[in-house]
Amino acid sequence: MNTDIAKGKWTQLTGKVKEKWGKLTDDEVEQMEGKFEVFYGKMQERYGMSREKARREFDALQA
């Protein structure tokens, strides 16, 4: 996925991310700016989930 598409998707999903994972601060979500690896790392840190689980959870938001 190219960077522009990733950032566009991120912008569309920001509200859903904040709603589903309330432990993430607004600043953290904004700093991620479509950097999915950073997102997966934050999910590991805040929620104790694996990168693969974080990836699956995020993919489910897009469905």
Automatic annotation (TrEMBL):
SUPFAM superfamilies, per database record: Hypothetical protein YjbJ
CsbD-like domain location: 4-55
Similarity comment text for this entry: Belongs to the UPF0337 (CsbD) family.
Name assigned to this protein: Uncharacterized conserved protein YjbJ, UPF0337 family
Species whose genome carries this gene: Marisediminitalea aggregata
Taxonomic lineage: Bacteria, Pseudomonadati, Pseudomonadota, Gammaproteobacteria, Alteromonadales
